[in-house]
Amino acid sequence: MFKVGVSQVGAVNVMTSDKGGLTNEQLADLAVDKIVSISDQAPPHIRQQAKAFREHLKKVLYHYLVLARKEERGSIIHILRSNGQKEMAEYIRRL
Amino acid sequence: MAIAQAMCTSFKKELLEGTHNFKNSGGGTFKLALYAEGSGGKSSTTATLGATTTAFTTTGEVASSGTYATGGGSLTRVDPTTSGTTAFTDFADLSFTTATITAMGALIYNSSASNKAVCVLDFSSNKSSTAGTFTIQFPTADASNAIIRIA
Q1: Which residues contact B77 (CB under 8 A, 6 or more apart)?
Q2: Which of A21, B75, B104, B117 fits a 20 to 30 Å CA distance from B133?
Q3: Chain A residues whose beta carbon lies within 8 Å of the beta carbon of residue B137
């Protein structure tokens, strides 16, 4: 039989959390999975390099995710303090 | 297996009939509904999904929780494209927050075309969130990994 085409469905990645949102680590994993995919058919030395790049990228993303959350909290605290919500601002600062 | 990953056979036929449009601008409304095996679904029903699924079904769908409402979440379309001889399309990742969900798989369907089924996603194992976030990340949009590919 001559096959004209093959239709396929890709594999999704499911990430879940309990009692709150995803952690920085989970978000970094999601981002890295989206940016880097390593072919099983790539030569071993290429795969090794790609894995090393992937690990480095994850560390960088993790660092900036932590920073982004911290900075956002800082902005929220500023807004709350500016509106006289000092107690709530302090509560968020301690998170 | 009650939930088996597949591109629905009816969808392949409907593609040839021009039923589905995945373009970002002016395309149809595609939704992703979550399903459970065993007692995780509504009324303890078990989902049976696979290549023979032709349309959205409430049997085995997980109950509304947090930002997940029965019927599923709307997907953000990404314009179909090609790489080499493969055509593919993609969706933006989908998250349900403050949700208590246990799901074994999902169905993508076209809610602007009589809820016709597109494909079934098998998570391989139960995925659970408790008052948390349930995120579905779509694979890299390329000729080898994209969510919907025609080679």
Answers
A1: B22, B23, B24, B27, B30, B89, B91
A2: B117
A3: 12-15, 30, 33-34
Q: Tell me the β-bridge partners of B102.
A: B128
Nearest CA to B97 out of A29, A27, A18 is that of A18
DSSP element (H, E) containing B113? none
Q: Contact at 8 Å (CB) between B8 and B53?
A: yes
How much is the pTM? Answer: 0.88
Rounded to whole angstroms, how far apart are CA atoms A70 and B13? 51
Chain A: residue nearest B102 by CA?
A16
Q: How far apart are CA B128 and CA B151, in angstroms?
A: 34
Asked if B130 and B23 count as a contact pair (C-beta separation under 8 A), the reply is: no
Tally of residues, chain A: 95
Interface test with B, best of A14, A17, A33 (most B CBs within 10 A): A14
Chain Cα centroid distance, residue B40: 18
pLDDT at A48 exceeding the cut of 90: yes
Cβ(B70)–Cβ(B103) under 8 Å? Answer: no
The ipTM, to two decimals, is 0.87
**Residue in A with minimal Cα distance to B135:** A15
CA distance A14 to chain B (A): 5
Interface size between A and B, measured as CB pairs under 8 A: 95
Cβ–Cβ gap B134/A16 under 8 Å = yes
Minimal CA–CA distance to B104: which of B52, B39, B55, B58?
A: B39
Average pLDDT, chain B: 93
